[in-house]
Design a protein that fits this description.
4-stranded antiparallel β-sheet; 4 strands; about 10% strand; alpha+beta; 10 helices
Length: about 160
């Protein structure tokens, strides 16, 4: 077990039930650009969406992520070719945001980011917020201040999705 992993696991454990699962989900979801892009395609509402096997380059990748989503408690509904997920739990504990921010920062560094811009802006430039199905403003606010999900934020995001671009 790496020192980095131990540090994250200890911090997540201190945050209470669900934080470790949330951290594991983010680590998996942001482990490869293919998974990030699939989640972007699946975004359908505030912090939720669906994935089909057609979003993925191969069936095995779909099954692996579908199983992860289910095992980590983010599945709303699933069958053999589609999984509907709900990520609102990621945003419900404001103390989780700094841990998520550090994970994103380390993921960017591992991917070769040389820190010329603030890491949150780099995350937004790569549309990490779209993969989590939240607005860029909400994503920034969450990472900076640990904002919690509000019905107002949900309504604004749903309205933005409904508007033709």
């Amino acid at each position: 077990m790496t020192t980095r992993f131990r540090r994250f696991a200890a911090a997540a454990k201190d945050l209470g039930e669900g934080a470790i699962d949330s951290l594991v989900f983010l680590a998996i979801a942001f482990s490869h650009h293919v998974l990030i892009n699939c989640l972007k395609k699946g975004a359908k509402g505030f912090a939720n969406g669906f994935l089909t096997d057609k979003h993925f380059p191969d069936r095995k990748s779909f099954i692996n992520l579908e199983n992860d989503i289910e095992e980590l408690g983010f599945v709303a509904e699933a069958n053999e070719i589609r999984v509907r997920y709900d990520l609102r739990e990621l945003f419900e504990n404001p103390k989780f945001a700094p841990l998520a921010a550090e994970l994103f920062r380390l993921k960017l560094i591992d991917a070769g980011w040389d820190e010329p811009s603030p890491f949150i802006e780099e995350c937004v430039a790569h549309r990490f917020h779209n993969a989590l199905s939240v607005s860029d403003d909400f994503f920034r606010s969450w990472l900076l201040g640990g904002v919690q999900v509000s019905t107002d934020a949900q309504a604004k995001f749903e309205q933005a999705l409904a508007c033709p671009h």
